Amino acid sequence: LANRTFHPEDTVIDVEGHTIGGDHVAVIAGPCSVESEEQLMTIARSVKQSGAAFLRGGAFKPRTSPYSFQGLQEEGLKLLQQAKAATGMPIVTEVMCQDTFDVVEQYGDILQIGAHNMQNFALLKRAGKSRKPILLKRGMSATVEELLMSAEYIMAEGNQQVILCERGIRTFETYTRNTLDLSAVLAIKALSHLPVIVDPSHACGKWEMVEPLSKAAVAVGAHGLMIEVHHQPESALSDGAQSLKPHKFQRLMDSIKKMG
Ligand code: PEP
Ligand code: MN
Hints:
This protein is an alpha/beta fold. The protein has a single domain (4-61, 69-258), classed as Aldolase class I (TIM Barrel). The protein is 37% helix and 15% strand. The strands form two sheets. Strands 3-4-5-6-7-8-9-10 form an eight-stranded parallel beta barrel, surrounded by seven helices. Strand 6 (110-113), helix 4 (121-128) and strand 7 (134-137) form a beta-alpha-beta unit. The longest helix is centred in the N-terminal third of the chain and has 14 residues, at 37-50. The protein binds phosphoenolpyruvate and manganese (II) ion. The site of phosphoenolpyruvate has 9 residues, from loops. Keywords: Transferase. This is 3-deoxy-7-phosphoheptulonate synthase. Its EC number is 2.5.1.54. Residues 13-257 form the DAHP synthetase I/KDSA domain.
C-alpha cells in the first residue's frame, strides 16, 4: 500500500487546508513537551508568526529515564487545544500506547508515533483504525524498509494517511545525538508515494546545527520539517539543547523561504 509501484502519484495529506506532500515545505514547530499554558502560548504565537503551519508539543513523553518529566498528559492536550483555538494551527502530538490512544486521538490533528514505538505493532494497528493522519518516525536502528513495513501495518488496517519522518539513526558517531540520514529521504521518495519530512532537532541534538540541516533536508526534497522551539531552552523540561529560540527559528524560516 505504501509502495510507489502500485500508487505512482504522491500522496498529499490535508488537515483543515494545511497540507503535507507535494512541492511546498510544510513546517511543524513547537516545544518538545507542553510544560505550561504560558510556555505553550508564547511558543505557539511566535512560531505561527514565523510561518509554521502546524504546532507540535508532547503531552505524553517517551523518556529514556522513568524519573524524567513524563508530560502533562491530558492537561497538556487541553493546552494544545487552547493553542490551536488561539492560532488556528493544527496540532501534532505523540500517542505512546493503546491505553491512551482514544484521548490523544480526541485532541490531536496528526498523531505522532515516535521512534521508540516504530515497531510497536499493536499500536500501529490501532493507528490504522484511526481517521487521523499518522506521523510515523523512523526507529533509531530501523532500516528504510522496516520503516515502510511499519507504515504498511497502519495502512493495512485502513488508514492511508501516513507521513514518514527521518529523525536520525544511531551510528558510532557520538558528537551528535544521532546521525541524520538524508539519503533516507531520497530512498523513501523513490520507494513510496507517502510524504516524508525531516526532524533535524532530534537528529543532531544541538540547536546550532538545526538550521543548516534544515536547509540540507529541503535541498534533498523533504516535504516538510519538524523543529523544536522553546523561548527559554535553558530551563526546558526536555530537549532544551536542541531547541531553537524564537528569533533563531524565524531566521531558519527566512533561509528556507529564500531557497524557494
Ligand atoms: C519527539 O518528537 O519529541 C520525540 C520524542 O522524538 P523521537 O520519537 O524521534 O525520539
Ligand atoms: Mn524532543
